[in-house]
Each structure stands twice: as C-alpha cells, then as structure tokens.
User: Fold these one by one.
Assistant:
Number 1:
Amino acid sequence: MAPPLDHRDRETEGTTLPSEDLLARHLVANGTGFRLSAVDPADTDGIENKKAAKKRLRAAINRLTELQSQLYAQDRWAALFIFQAMDAAGKDGTIKHVMSGVNPQGCQVHSFKAPSKEELDHDFLWRCARALPERGRIGIFNRSHYEEVLTVRVHPELLQHQRIPEGLVTENIWKERFEDIRHFERHLNRNGVIIRKFFLHISKEEQKRRFLDRMDAPEKHWKFSPADVTERDYWEDYMSAYEEAIRETSTPEAPWVVAPSDHKWYARVVVAETIVQALESLDLGYPTASPEAKEGMALARATLESESSVDPS
C-alpha cells in the first residue's frame, strides 16, 4: 500500500512547493459527507494572479521532471493520474501544461471516448485495466472508468449497449459499481500503483463563456460540438453524479482532488503540486550500483582510458 499522504515543503526557484494548505484545501481523502456545493469553482486560494500561478507551476514542473526521472530509474512504482470534468473545463490544457517537463518515454496518456464494440463485450473496468501504466511510468487517463458512474448514470439508456444480463441490472447497480471501483483501485495500490483522481470543477457560467469563445475563434472550432450544449440540459444531474462518485470512491489509497477550474491557471497549480506531493510520498531515488556493477564500471573506465587518442585530421 502507498505511504500515507504527507505534505512536505521544498524550495524551488524561490517558491515553496508544494503548499500544504493548498493541497489540504482540495484533496478529499475520505468522501464521507463531501458536498460539491461547498467548492467554489472560482476559488484561487490566495494566489494573486496568473503571473504568480505561472511561477508556482514552473517550480512544480521542474520538480516533477526530477521525480519522474527517479520513478523511471527506480522501476518499482507506477503512477496513475485520472482526469474527469465537464466539457471545456480544461482537461487537455491541464495535462499539456503540467506534464510539459516529463520525458515522453516514461509517460503514457489515454483518452477514453465512447466504448467500442469490443470494449462493450467486456466488463466496464476492462478497457481501463488494459491501459494501466507499467512500473516506473506515469499513466494519464483523460476520462476513465468513472464515465460508467457519470455519463452512463445520467443517460442510463447506455446500459442497454453493454448487454448485461437483465437480472444483474438492478436499482443497486451504481452502488455495486462504486464498490467495484474501490476494490479495483485498492488492488492497484496494493500492487504499487499510486493514484490521484482530479475533478476539474467549472461553473456552468464559465463553461458557457468558453463555448462562446470556441465559436468565435476559427482555430477552436474543432473543439466544439453542438452536443456539448445539449449536455448542459443535464447539468444538475451531472453535478449530483459527480458528488456521489467522489463521496463513494474517495479513499486514502485513491483520493479525489477537486480543483476549482474557472481560472485555468489555478487548476494547473493544484494539479501540478498534488502530483509532486504524491510522487514525493514514495521516497523515490536513483538505484545504487551494486559492488559487482561498480567493479564492472571500473574495468570499463580502465578500458576507455587506455584507448589511444585518434587524430581527427
């Protein structure tokens, strides 16, 4: 099981990182009693402006670069970071900015769309289980198995496509899926996968503003679908589904982080500093060479140093 959550401060480029208060403010280690209405999507927790946020983000990215290198070299732990949000909340941009300093060889990103016929022929966790990161690597899920208790719950007709035997689709199906998810994530954690789940919490008003911005900018038209506006009719249903999902599946092994996202720059700081804290809790480091390996390096050094220099002319 992963070490207990700890919030350690580090000085990077003159910025204290991560901020214990910021992490504690948004991390939901135990979902009991969680209320989404208690989280202000416009919260910035005292970070003055975009410039100050960029400074903190840069510091976090620098630290993340170092930690990811150690994670890869140590090859013991895997890290899984899950992103869920309403449309236009900034998942893609957050992943792009926060992971900008990570070596692509040690990171894999999976964006889960509507399930394929093959995926529908398996249990609801199957397609995500196939995409889990290997030891030493960071895995990013852009949407995830949580769609099965979010989108499918808001649109229960989608259950018909899964062809689950009728007797198994009861009024307890969502409770049963929450239980399955908790057990799945606990299993992963017991086998060396550290998990953090991010809900980028945007207000309905800010989503509207961003949709209109996409319509006004030709280079953003590809991001917009009329179906996105149709889904706004189900806003309250989605908020209710998210609240219960967070309440039922926030555990010490796999906590949720609810990141206010009306200000993209603030959400990115929350995500970056949370990821840094999570990796720091693993006590990562570079492997120490064995006596045999050191002896081999000494022999290799002697061989190299004994080679005669070659005149390039």
Number 2:
Amino acid sequence: MSALEVTNLVKEYRGDGYVVRVLDDLSFTADKGELVVLLGPSGSGKTTLLSCLGAMLSPTSGSIEIEGTDLTELNGPSRDQYRRTRVGFVFQGFNLIPSLSARENVAVPLLINKKVKRADAYARADALLERVGLADRAGHKPSQLSGGQQQRVAVARGLVTDPFLLIADEPTANLDHIQAEAVIRLLRELRDDGRVIIVSTHDGRLVPVADRVVHMAPGGVAIEPERVRVRYAPGEVIFLQGQHAELVYVIEEGDVEIYRDVGDGTEESLAMIPAGNYFGELGALMGFPRSASARATTEVVAEAMGANEFRQGVEDGKY
C-alpha cells in the first residue's frame, strides 16, 4: 500500500439546477519522500483536490487514504486533529500576518496549541527559518521581505507541526523566475524528510523536479485544436511573446520571422523560417507561453495544428 492513495475521487457542486463535476473519478498514489505535481489550468480542480487532501472539503464519492486512514471517514474532532498535526498548508498568496515577524508567523500554528510552550514554538520556528535560508530575517515583518522570502516563510510555517503531508497551492505563481527557482529547489530538498509533498501549479517549471505528475484538465479531457489552413499578409503578427501556446505551424508558402521583445522596447530578430519548415512547436508541446513572437515577412500560407497531431506527424516522418 502506498503512503497516499486517492481512489475514484469525485467532487460535485450543485447550483441553479445544474451539477458541475470538478473532480471526475480521479485516482493516483504517492509514496513517502515524493513530490507530486498537480498540473493543469485554472478551473481544472487543483485547489478543490488540495482542499479534499487537507480535509477542508469532503468529496462527493471516492476515498483518500493516508497511511491506511481514510480521510472521508473522519468525524469532526478527528478531522480537526488531522488538520492540526498531519497536514501543512502553503498558500499562493503567502497568507502571512502583517503585524508579526517571520519567527512569529512560523510559530503561530504551535502558539495556538496550548500544549506547546512558547519557547519551544519559537525554537522550532528558528530552526525552520534556518532550514529555508532565512535565519537572518527572523525578526523581519512580511512588508520587509521579498515575495520569494515570504513564500519561504510560508513553507516554514507549513512545516512547523512536522506534518506527514505538505500541500502547496500555486507556490510559484506570484514569483519571478529567480524567486520561483529558490522555492522549487527548497521543495525538492524537503522530499528527503520522508514526507509527501503535493503541489498544484500551471507552471511547467515544476515538472522536471516532480516524482509524479497528475495531469488535470477541465472535465478531465484536454481538447485538441482542429487542423486548419491559415493565411497571413506581409507584416501580420501570427502570435505574440507571452501568449498561451496551442498551435504548431508548418509553412507551405512564404517566410516567417521569429523575434523577441527586448526590455528597452526594441526587438531582436532570432530567426527567419522559410517554406517547408515549422515553428511554434516548443510552446505547444511543453505547455509554455510563447517565448518569442512570430510575423509574416511575405504572403504566408501555413497549416496550424495541435501538439498531438504535430507529434504524430514527426513520428510518421512528415515533419
């Protein structure tokens, strides 16, 4: 038996005469020392699943077993005990108390437990702040910390009760790539403690460090874009840097320029793509936003298709 087993989980919401099924027969497992990434866009049920794992929501059907205990069978007092001692939470918006120092924010879950002495709570908080690299910021309030530092304080707070399960909801969403890298590295290191870490994200940067990836999509089904023939006039923009990537383009006629917007407001030309070649494949295949822009330099005719159809074409030797 795995340390965590989610089996046939269903969560439905009812309102105005219709039913919305957010989780549809979802199953996965995780072992001690594993980092599991729930990957999917907004509305795919990631936060709902985390709420069920944290015993804040009850599923409509199915089961969640942690070390042999089914969370769906816990009553009020036992659910409260589970939330206080067995699971730690890390929120997207940090949720730190502005008037408290980093040390006090980390210690809060222990301070509200009258069985833990104040000195012991602060000692535990100091040890965790050192673990996340913020020992020298223990006395700083949230307003004196960067976004990445606040998130690391939030991670330390989630660990203060030494939970078996640590769940994090979009922990890199509000961070730049440098701050996000530090948080990702920290989550990866925490696997060594033997706990299970569940992270929800739409950020593909977490996928390479995951031990398991649970792909989530609205209704549990990803819709593949239809293949279409497209035409562009000279100078017409095909897609812009930063946009969501769904399509791969195979040029039948004309030339396409790939360029990148530079921080000073200018453009940097990266490549000229002639007829018979393709472009836009990395963003579509990996689920990343467009890393550059594309525009037609001549009259362009191209075939635009989804990532799965393009991948099959590559395997068949078409591209």
Number 3:
Amino acid sequence: MSALTASRANIPTRINDPINAAVLAVSEDRVPGFHSDPIGEIARLSEIEPDIVIERIRAMLEAGAIRRVRQTLLATNLAEGALVAWQFPADKLDAAFDYLYEQDPFSGHVVIRSTDTASTPGARYRLWTTLKVPQGYSLDRYANFLRDKTGAERYRLMPARYLFALGVGHVRRQNLAIGSKADVPAEAVATETVSLTDREWQVLVSLKREFAPNEIVRDLWSARAEEAGVHLDEFLAVGRALNERGVIGRFSTFLEHVKPTGGEQRVTRYNALFHWAVPPGRELEAGREIGRFHIMTHAYWREAGPEFNNVNIMGVAHGLDKDVILQHKAAMDSHLAEVGIDVAYTNVFWGGRSEIKPSEISPLAFCDFCRKNGIDPESMQ
C-alpha cells in the first residue's frame, strides 16, 4: 500500500464523525443556488478548512456514505413533471420497480409505499415515482407508455402547483425538537416553466452531472466549462443567470435515504409521505404552515383526486424512529387546527423499498431514448 493510499484509508468516513457531521450539516441542503466556489461556501458555513472539506467529501463518496454530489436544479421549472402513484398486480410490482429505477431515465424517486390499514384511500397504489419529460412533450403520453411497458393497472399524475419546502438535510434533522418550526410561514414557490436556449442547455447538461470523487476539487467548474465547450467566465455567467431565473436548486451531497452505509450506519430509517385534505381556497395558506416545520424535507400543493380522498397538501419527512415522526405529524396537525385550517382527511404512506436518482430532463436524451425504444419522439408531443 502506498503512503497516499494508506493516508486516505485513515480518513474517517462515518457520518457521525464530528468533522464529517459538521460538513454534512451544511453540504446536504445549506448551499442554495449557484456558487462559483461551492467548496468554499461549505467551508465558510461549516467553519472547516476547504482542503479538509474536499478530503472528507471525497472519502465519504468513495466509501458510499455519500451516494452522489451534484448541483441540483429546480426541475419543476425546466420540465413537465409530477408525482405518480401506480397501481400494479402484486406479481408485477417488483419488476416494475426495477424497470423504472434501472431503465427509465425520466423516473426519479422510485418508492414502494404502504399504509397502516388496507382501507386507507389509495392503499392499492403501492409504487410511487417522480416523473419528468422535457418541455414540449406530453407527460400523459409518456406515462401511458410506461403503463403499457410495466403492466400497470392504472396511475394518478399529481403535478406540483406550489412548493413550500425542498431540502433533504438528514444530519441536521436528527435531533430536532418535536414541532420545531420557523417563526414565519414558508415561502410559496410557483412552478413556472422557463425556456432555455441551446447554449444554456449545453452549459446546464455539464453543470448538473454528478461529480466523481476525483472531480471534487476547489475549482469545480473549470473542467465542466471545458466539457461544455465554453470559457469558464461564460460558464459561470450562465450559471448565475439560470439561478436568477429560478432553475437552480442547490449544491448538495446526498446521503442514502434508508439503506445503511459504511459501518452499517443509517442516517434515516423511515420515509413518511403525509397527506392532508384542506378546504379549497386554503391550499397556499396550509402549505405555507406545513412548510415552516423543520422536519419537512418536501412540501407541495398537489391534487390527488378522489382516489386519495381529495388530498391537496403533501409532504415528506424522514427519521430513525417511527413514533418520533408521528409525533412531528401530530404537532403539525395541532398547528393547523390552531391557525383555523380544517383538515377533512389526513394519512401517512410509509416508504419501503426505495431508490433515488435524478430525473433526466434533456430534450436530446428524451429523443434518443424514444428512438431506442421504437417510438417516434413527435408522437410524444
């Protein structure tokens, strides 16, 4: 073993190592927008030297404690997208999961969910995914293709009308007090499609690609600018402009949601999808109240329809203890009652088997996929 290999082998990779925890508490979801120096921003906020930040992120990525590092996008503003609930015959459920995770680039989160009682509205919809198609193409037509390909009995598309919370910071959420919330309601962010030029797409494709361990350096963007075929100054200018137009999410290190990492550590064990049905006309108010709770990683206004008892507010929370998650849910329910928002129905869909990957949103990638599967891309418009 070389001296370099030996020294890297001695770098702690457990997520509860104090330095790693300090880095992750920032790098998971505390670097919003586009930064010309994301590593420097993580170092500043965590008060850890940049070289150590690089060393630790590289080591955790190589060890699998971090599953990916990438600049995220607000893809709801770049592509047609929805949360999809799928109903399958029991004998086709696992095969459908495998196909959507392994072979469909446009499905992102793929999760098998269950409810505490079989009588829960929508309980037969076991497979939940996110789905996106590039601008100009039909989400319904592509979902029909996936239905026929996988043997689904039916599906329900639930586009997000507004976002109230979006940031998966597992480490910093592990010791939250029950009911911890912001002093003011969350911001309501509308989902509005933004059109890009070919040049902007050229930069964006390189910008969003996840980083390999050897690419984690202080100067992250020079190699990506070269890959995109533009000068670094132009690359950074496009990144800043896209950020101002609301299509950039955050620079993020992603941990495994449920599966154990190195040393059999779990950062989370339970994945809960909360459902609330609030009176029509009060969706924005209710969503902003739910979004202020720190336990929430996602909160949206989505119309689930009669299959799910007309749920219109949804949110996701993660944790290591099921009872603790339910206590957080009870605190949110109490808060809604206190502010005078009636809830006609509420429930929890628990995540089981799950895989998370970014959905592809490139029009060129979509056309290529269609042709490889014997589909005329124009038929998907």
Number 4:
Amino acid sequence: MVFLSLQTLKPSILLPCWPNNQLMNASVVHFIDRLPKTETHLHIEGALPWPLLKQINPVKFSGTPSFRKPNFRYDSFEQFETILIDHALGFFSSPESYFDAARAIFENHLKQNVKYVETSFHAGMIEYLKIPGEEILKAIVAAIPAGLEVRVFLGISRNLYTENLAPQLEQAITSWPDLAGIDLHGLETLPMESWTAPFWRRAKDCGKMVKAHAGEFGPAENVLHAIEELGVQRIQHGTKSIESREVMRVVKDHEVTFDMCPISNFKLRVIEDWEDHPLPLFLQENIACTVSTDDPLSFNNSLSEEYQVCHEKLGLGLPELAQLAQNGFMNANLSRELKDFWVHEIENVLKEFTKDSW
C-alpha cells in the first residue's frame, strides 16, 4: 500500500488578490450563491430538517444539541449512526412523512441555487415501517418542486438482501419507473456478499444508475472492488483512494467520479486535519469530484457551506469551485442540452467574478 503525499502533490492554486480577507470572503460567498449547483450524495433520512423535528416535539428539540454545534466531531461511526437513527425514526413513519421531509429539503435546495439533486432513501426503512417501498418513492417524487430536477435512489446495505426484503429489491429495479438507481450503503467492515455483484448487474441491465459507498472508512481496495465487480462509475466518498496509486490509476482509466462530502469526512474523522483531505489532489490528478452534504441532520451543514469549506480549508480557488459544480452537471442524469446549458452558465458566473481579479 502506497500513501500519496498531500504536502508534495497538493495543487498550486492562485487565489484572487482581494484588498482584505473580509472582502475576499464576502465575494466568495456571493460567487458560491450565484453558482448553479448539484447535490449528488444525500441521504434523505439523514437530511431531515431540524425544524421539522421541532414541530413534532418543541420541548425536546428546542435547543441545539451538541452534535449539531460547529466544533463537534464524532468519536466513531457507530456514535454517528446511533444518533442519526434515533432522530430519524422519531419522524419518519409513513409515506406522508417522507413527503413532508422531501418538500422541506428540496425547498432549501432551491434557496441555494441547486438545480439537480440525487438523493437516496434506505431500503431498511421498507422493512422497519412495513410499507411498500414504492409508496415512499412516490411520496418523495411528489414533493419535487418546479425548477428542480431530482433523481431518487434506493440505498441498500451490504447485508440487506434478506429473505423478506430480496423480492422487494428485485421488484424495485424491474418495476419502479420512478427509481433512478441503487446505491450500496452500510458498514465497509461487513463482507461483500455474493448477491451484490449480480444484483448490481441486473440493475444496470434494467437501465438503473448504480453507485456505491466505498473508501470512506474502508481501504482503497473497496473502491477498486466497486469499480471492477459492481461496475459503478460513481463512488460515494472514495476518500481512501489516496492510499493506492493503483486504485487512483483505475479510477482515472474508468473515468470514475467521486461524490465527496468534506464536512462529513472531517466530523466523522475520516480525516484528522483539513490539510489531509485528498480533494485538492484528486482534482490535480484530473479525477472528477463533486461536493455534497451527506447527512445534514447530523452535521448541521449546507451545500453552500461545503463549497465555502473547499475554499477556506482546502485552498480551492474560484475556478476549482466552478469545476466542482460543472462536474455535478456533467455526471447528472440530464439531457446533453441541459448539461451543456448549466456548464455554460457556470462558465459565465466564473468569468463575471474573475475578469477583474485574477
């Protein structure tokens, strides 16, 4: 295993010569606001808006819990998962609850100038709530507002192809027209079971998009397996790919995109320090990356803040931020005309903000 050096390979980024930091920050925030953006790594249960919890229990959820405070970092993935599940299960109980959450989530996207979203709901909720998964899917789709394109995925944990759930998973990829695709979820410490690769192939044959969470807490080899065995070109996270030059080569050869979530990576201690985050290196290596929020219920983050972190903590300049936004559209499930339109719009915003400052 070869670890690449972020210190020696970090890209040289030319930042604008603003008169002072306050003006620089205000201008960057305005630039981010103006950027048409995508969100391509979002768990709908983990995106439950806090105000909706306050509505159902104003006393219990009146304040800001410790895990949503700015300096909080989780001790372990298990702690993160326990807190998220405890809160999500207090709200999600029916297709109507998914509609309410999705409507609030998507409205917030519109406020941030987001034009395209890929979100997943967890297959385990079908079993837990004892309601047909397609009803959850239809509720989410019904909440999509005008002006926002949304694609809904079914998140399937590595150990969820159970006797009860397997028939419903098969039905999902063959008979749910509103389902855009599937995404591999779950602890990377769990073994990859024999059903997974054939199921992912069947989903692709049915015209579904396929993704996989890999290389977050697990090693770079998990990314390699997802690409070569599951046939995905979209990796959720992929952070640990930096551990292996061979994996980096395969990622580039297969033109794989990493849908990354820097704030999540920091708060979950996937990276210990901001300078350890590989996103700048991935961009230098011409690996397509996007940025998303992952689970804003747990991290109290917004997509605009993810872009701000990329600038303030990872040193990305405006062209790199624009590239992240363009990558989202270039990998979106949209017509070529719409992709080209939004890429051109991003180019225009970049020109507007850089013509007098670079």
